[in-house]
Amino acid sequence: MTGLKVCTGGCHCGQVRFECTTDLATVTACNCSICTKKGLHLTFLPPKSFQLRAGGESLKEYLFNQRAISHQLCSECGVEVFARGTKPDGSEIIAVNVSCIDGIDLAALKMTPIDGRSR
């Protein structure tokens, strides 16, 4: 996929919904413990490119390890929709679970491998 595109998406049960603007040029395939166990494929956005449209009250936060990334899961269906964190320079970042984007075909995307297991 090339060029910025407005995408919508959400969790499995539909309580949590979002809209984001992304080009999906970089979608990660990370091998860290959480990404492996959850099957997460993420794209990273500045907060201004992400809007939570519904379900903020349904979100449950999950923190682990260094507690630096705030994983946001639907409390009803358990799907991790996105996460909030900070980049090494201190700026805020949103990590969108690409699998939650409406109509997405993961097989059509180029995945960028990330060795999170060794960090």
TrEMBL record:
It comes from the Bacteria. Belongs to the Gfa family. The keyword Glycosyltransferase does not apply. The keyword Membrane does not apply. It comes from Rhodopseudomonas pseudopalustris. One of its GO terms (molecular function) is carbon-sulfur lyase activity. Keywords: Metal-binding, Zinc. Residues 7-115 form the CENP-V/GFA domain. Transmembrane segments: none annotated. Gene3D superfamilies: 2.170.150.70. This is Uncharacterized conserved protein.
